[in-house]
Amino acid sequence: MKKSTIRVILWSYSAKMELELKENASRTLLTLCKIKFYRRNGEKNCYEKCLKKKRNYREGYMIGITEPRRVAAISVAHRVGEELNLTPSHVSYHIRYDKEVTKETQIKFMTDGILLQEIKQDFELSKYSVIIVDEAHERSIYSDVILGLISLAVRLRRRRFTDNIPTNGKILLPLKLIIMSATLKVNDFAENRRLFPHKPPPVIHIESRQYPVACHFAKITHPDYLKAAFRKVVSIHKTSPPGGILVFVTGQQEANTLCSWLTRAFPKMEDQEVNINGSEKSNKTNGDRNGRTKLKETFELTTSPNPSSNKSVLNEKDQFATGIDLNNFDIIPADEETEIGHTRINPKETVKMEVKEPNKVVDNVDDSDDVEEVDDDDDILGQISEIRNESYPGPVYALPFYSLLPPERQKIVFQSPPENHRLVVVATNVAETSITIPNIRFVVDTGKVKTKVYEPATGTSSFEIIWISQASAEQRAGRAGRVGPGHCYRLYSSQIFSSMEQFSVPDILLRPVDEVVLMLKLYLGSTKLTLFPLPTPPLPQAIEAAERRLIALGALKEIANTSGGVSRLITDAGKWMTRIPVPARFARMLLFANQCQLMPYAVILVAALSVPHLFLSQASDTPTSEQEKTFQSNFVQQFVRSKEDLCLGDLAVLLGTICCLDRYASQLNGLIPAEPGIIESVGGKTYVSRDPEGALRQLVQRCGVRWNAYKEVRQLRKQLTDILNAVIPDLDLSIDLCLSKPSSSQIIQLRQLFLVGSPCQIAKKLNVSVTGLPGNERRRLRYAYEIPGKKGPVFIDSNSPVARENFPFIAYLELHTTSKPFLRSVCAIDPGWIPFLAPHSYAVSELVLTDSADSLNATETKTTNQNVSNESTGDVCDNDSAKPNSPVSFPTPSYDAERDIIVTGAKSITYIGLGVVPDSSELFDNQFLDLPSWVVVPINGVAAIQSIGFKESLTWSVRWFTRYLLEGVIFPEFKMWFPSKIKKSISPHIVTVSWGVIRPEVRSLVSILVSDKIDSKRKLLQQWESNIQCKCIMILYYDKLFRYL
Predict the structure, then answer these.
(1) 965-977 pLDDT, tens per residue?
(2) How many CB atoms lie within 10 A of CB 1000?
(3) How far does the chain reach from its first CA to its final CA, in angstroms?
(4) CA distance 484 to 482
(5) Cα 902 from Cα 890, distance rounded (Å)
(6) Separation of alpha carbons 137 and 506, rounded Å
(7) Where is the Helicase C-terminal domain (predicted)?
(8) Mean pLDDT score of the chain, rounded to an integer?
(9) Distance between CA 990 and CA 998 in Å, rounded?
(10) Second label for 1010, Cα 20 to 30 Å away, from 85, 215, 601, 976?
(11) Which sign does the torsion angle of CA 283, 285, 286, 289 carry?
């Protein structure tokens, strides 16, 4: 290995500034060379031989280094290139949607997700000689899975190298794995026998020349840590020598608020006379004001639906059954071997919102969905006033820093501050590791972090502000000792520090593991997931919940194994889903979207649902005027003005927003004629022609959409389009920037498609008792819903256009808990769709298998059931849906020609979801949702089989199919020569009479069809075409039956 390559390995460990580690280089390299699987034979070698061997070993391979965040991968790659005096073509980075990798790349920095995708394509990682997992202490789900997969790849490559087995015509040299961290819980790795089965790997401890950092604990832990941080920064600025200050807070709003306080407390010299209350107003130019007026008029003229559309009501005759066949995988080639929510301005509250102070330094979007605005109070304003009246220590240069900050603003913190300014960086935990901000001498640690906590038993996620671990506290303190001796001021007592956990809890114990389980099933097959080498295995309850959800999505299936138990294996559909870089539920939507020609719309929806924080939040600095607030409200409301759009709910807003902005992008780029007022609203023709992207950015933000989120949606849309064209033969999908609005039938199909991807996320309107509750409680529960596994009511996010609509059933993207549980990204569904589009997510009892009376006229039975079936396939958007709901009358079996199956009713049909674990202590007695009594289910479906058994279910399905076949329902052309009655009082309905199988001719005919499992028109035609014997036997028995009757 080259000396520079050795240097970069050590540098990545702890020398991201110019710290000398030469005394450790020889010892570290020798240790790496002595690792047994690193050599072919394991003989002892001297240092010079190691160098030679490493140099030969390196030829033709890359060194891959993973970083937990995109900003870290980019910044470290650039820093290493500068250190080694190499160009970006030699030291490159690769993150999602952006890369600098070339054929000359020798060192490649990337995020965990990128390496995970490469492992899917090349399990042996044949392009790499060394994989370095940096910042392993962060324990993200991807990094843990990567370590498990690489440990298997290391063993495989060593074995193939020892046995001289080539891979793609080349014998690969053994692969090295280096795990690096400054605060790693070593025992989870070094003593993990599944991760390292042969012997524990060597642990190399490098003593870096970190400058001393003095840690100061607070005597009293102040409950309001943000105010305490403000006071501490003020004290440091007044009394301490020059040097940057790094403050750790929990989220974007806190970072922006603290920056605002500091900027007003220590402004520039020329701004001393500025009013500290921020009452000065920014004057808008007449041109800008006129532009917004024209743009508003443009939206009203060009995007408002026709007046008649406001009266659009979905008539019963316009509805149809589900057009999605879950058994149709035509997009998967026959020869093929077979990874939210948003916050936006509430249009109902825009008029009441106050104008924010112009001086307040804020940004576009919250760091999480659970951010509450932190307002100025009299205490802070009083302190700022006192500071301004005291001796002036000089201005501060306060900058926020968090993951959702635009890249151009993130780069500012790495630049030198203005002359005579003290740099103050207010950051989330993104600045805790991986990156080094220059010239930081003081750290103010609040000791808090905001984390997303997931409860696998109920499927609930919530953001919680918790204490950090001791390891994180040490990481934060270390930021002050990079360029010289520093100080860390901890705003909590030493007693609090002693009570902190030593290490952070791994993400795999806190997040859903659906994607992990699906990917591991692809590699492990029927092998138990507990045998996979993970540093920390997920909880059994989390695995069970994930597998249940994947079964509901059709990605896994249950089969009986040789030991009498049940194994869960990946299906062909599941293998296809793993090839799409989105969560499995979104991949399932794309799997079936092409059946109804919905792929262009589905790709946009999946991209928009996959990118969080699409809309600007109420706490952001945009908008600031009532005119802009009203404009944004109108922009959102235009997409849900008709009833059919309202049923699509949040999906209509997402789809309409992206399509509308794409159309504006086309106009600004001159691809299509511009609408009146668009060009003028963003600076005029000259500015648009010079900087169309800048003009589009203004327009996007003015519409209330976060620019970076919109760009990511466009990038993901393009990526999905390319992947789908590659994996679906003859798809020929393109990006239409002027995509038309979906028709009424397509809107219904999009709702059905969302249900296909959300079989475990369904809620039912809460039945509120009219009596026994006080008036305020009834009003509170007026728009409440209930979901399986969650005790108590849940509510639709107040920003949703359907938050004040009473749909009987809805599907949602996620359940999020703040002060109360909220459902996000919601659309209305018909409960009659559930048995057909979510077949694993409901249960039945007491199926109706015969007519209500054996003497019931067959024609009347068929007609009655067909009416019920037609009603059940209609749309349920009305708040008061008039569906048959008699407590004593249930649908009897009938033939559903649309789906080509026999359907029937049941005394009890309950939605169970499958996203919860039934034996969980978190659940309660009435944990499932009752579906309306008019809902029909497949008589041979999963739920029916679980209720009455496979044989009984198939037999009754065949008997009813035979009856409708003889009555001419299946083939209407048969009806002309099938008499309704052969003998007096005897008709074909005898086949479905409970005692009908006593008749030998009925029993014989049914047994023939049961043996071939013929209970649908499709199966009958397939058997008829492929089996001549079937034709003869069926004709013979039909003739025998008719003669006997």
Answers:
(1) 888 888 887 666 6
(2) 10
(3) 90
(4) 6
(5) 15
(6) 9
(7) 347-524
(8) 77
(9) 10
(10) 976
(11) negative
Alpha carbons 248 and 431: distance in angstroms, whole number: 8
1016 DSSP assignment:
S
Q: For the segment 659-714, what is each residue's pLDDT rounded down to a tens digit?
A: 999 999 999 988 888 888 888 888 888 888 888 888 999 899 888 898 889 999 99
Decide if 395 contacts 276 (C-beta within 8 A).
Answer: no
CATH class belonging to 6-39+58-205: alpha beta
Residue with tokens 């408002």: 304
Q: What is the rounded CA–CA span in Å between residue 405 and residue 255?
A: 11
Give the pLDDT score at 377.
64
Sign of CA dihedral 918, 922, 926, 931: negative
Strands 842-847 and 794-796: unpaired
What is the Cα Rg of the chain in Å?
Answer: 33
Q: In which residue are the tokens 């690489």 written? A: 150
CB 484 within 8 A of CB 438: no
Facing residues of 795 across strands?
Answer: 784, 822
pLDDT digits (tens, 9 = 90+) for 485-500: 899 999 999 999 999 9
Ramachandran sector of residue 968 (left: φ over 0; alpha: ψ -120 to 50; beta: rest)? left
pLDDT above 50 for 880: no
Strands of the sheet with 842-847, listed across from one edge: 842-847, 906-911, 929-930
CB-based contact 259:426 (threshold 8 Å): yes
- Is the pLDDT at 576 greater than 70? The verdict is yes
For range 832-836, the mean pLDDT: 94
Q: Which pLDDT value is given to residue 1032?
A: 57
Rounded CA-CA distance 172/161 in Å is 6
3-state secondary structure of 359: coil
Q: Which sequence spans correspond to the domains of the chain?
A: 6-39+58-205, 213-268+379-508, 512-579, 584-749, 831-852+890-918+925-1043
The pLDDT value recorded for residue 208 is 64
Beta-bridge partner residues of 443: 246, 488
More confident residue, 698 or 433: 698
Which of 305, 405, 401, 347 is closest to 799 using CA atoms? 347
At 579, is the secondary structure helix, strand, or coil? coil
- C-alpha closest to that of 64 among 17, 16, 101: 101
- Cβ burial of 489 (10 Å; 0-12, 13-18, 19+) is buried
- Are residues 401 and 494 in contact, defined by beta-carbon separation less than 8 angstroms? no
d(CA 116, CA 579): 12
- State the virtual CA torsion across 602, 605, 608, 611 in degrees, nearest 10: -70
Q: What is the tens place of the pLDDT at every residue in 242-254?
A: 999 999 999 888 8
Listing DSSP states for 963-992 in one string gives: HHHHTTSSSGGGGGTS-S-SBTTB-GGGGG
Asked if 988 and 967 touch (Cβ cutoff 8 Å), the reply is yes
Do the two domains 6-39+58-205 and 213-268+379-508 of this chain adopt the same fold?
A: yes
Q: Which CATH superfamily is domain 213-268+379-508 in?
A: P-loop containing nucleotide triphosphate hydrolases (3.40.50.300)
- In 89-245, which residue ranges form alpha helices assigned H by DSSP? 112-121, 141-162, 187-190, 225-239
pTM: 0.77
| 809 Rama sector, left if φ>0, alpha if ψ -120 to 50, beta otherwise | beta
DSSP secondary structure, 473-534, as one string:
HHHHHHGGGSSS-EEEEESS-HHHHHHS-SSPPPGGGTS--HHHHHHHHHHHTTS-GGGS--
Domain boundaries 512-579, corresponding CATH code = 1.10.10.10
Q: For the residues 168-184, what does the mean pLDDT come to?
A: 86
DSSP category for residue 728: S
Beta strand extents in 198-342 (DSSP E only): 213-217, 244-248
Q: Is the pLDDT of residue 788 over 90?
A: no
CA distance 653 to 145: 36
Give the chain's length: 1045
Question: Do the beta carbons of residue 148 and residue 155 sit within 8 Å?
Answer: no
